């Protein structure tokens, strides 16, 4: 059943090509489930002029072609679907992600441990205990933002970014976790690398992880990690 608060959902026009449907202002599973349900409903609603629906932590952006419709008309049609029951829920996939936390592949793990006042082994154990969920894609191709980092290892982002962080780097910041998909700067904490590639351009759908999917990380040693053919960090 779709549960809506007295304040949400709210609809806001985004330029002349979209309407943002907001379901809350905090990152939590209940709000995100409303996001997932509405995204599935609107994706199959066949509303004239709608070009896409993009789910995030707390909202869904409904894009439209301004040559075919307008914000007022789209908003009216969206409102008709806000209380609609989801007929066919999408079952999330659960992933086991092998990761290596060796210090040579985890440039920040010692500093993370020092700031938290725990050992690096405890950082690894806590990270592997986390129950992670894909909330949204953003920032760069294949960047799947996950919630679920245990409070015991949460740290705010760094004060300054680091350049040239390689693909498949495992990173955390606050309650969020991320696997990089290409080399670029970041202010997140680099605590390991994974042999898993969340962006695979040779696939029909290159974004391998689905929004709403869940993950667990499992630790592997560096020797086993190298067998998977990951070259970064040597």
Q: Can you put this structure into words, describing what you see?
A:
This protein is α+β, with helices and mostly antiparallel strands. The protein folds into 2 domains: 10-79, Gyrase A, domain 2 (2-Layer Sandwich); 94-227, Cyclophilin-like (Cyclophilin), CATH 2.40.100.10. It is 21% helix and 29% strand. It is built from 5 helices and 13 strands. The chain has helices at 29-43, 71-79, 109-116, 120-129, 222-227, and strands spanning 10-14, 18-22, 50-55, 59-64, 94-100, 132-137, 144-147, 162-165, 169-173, 176-179, 184-186, 189-194, 214-220. The protein has a 7-stranded mixed β-barrel. A 4-stranded antiparallel sheet has the order 1-2-4-3, covered by helices on one side. A two-stranded antiparallel ribbon has the order 8-11. The model is unreliable at 229-234 (pLDDT under 50).
What would the keywords be for this entry?
234 residues, alpha+beta, Gyrase A, domain 2, Cyclophilin, 2 domains, seven-stranded mixed beta barrel, four-stranded antiparallel β-sheet, 5 helices, 29% strand, disordered C terminus
Layout of helices and strands, plus pairs?
Layout: E1 10-14, E2 18-22, H1 29-43, E3 50-55, E4 59-64, H2 71-79, E5 94-100, H3 109-116, H4 120-129, E6 132-137, E7 144-147, E8 162-165, E9 169-173, E10 176-179, E11 184-186, E12 189-194, E13 214-220, H5 222-227
Parallel strand pairs: 5-13
Antiparallel strand pairs: 1-2, 2-4, 3-4, 5-12, 6-7, 6-13, 7-10, 8-11, 9-10, 9-12
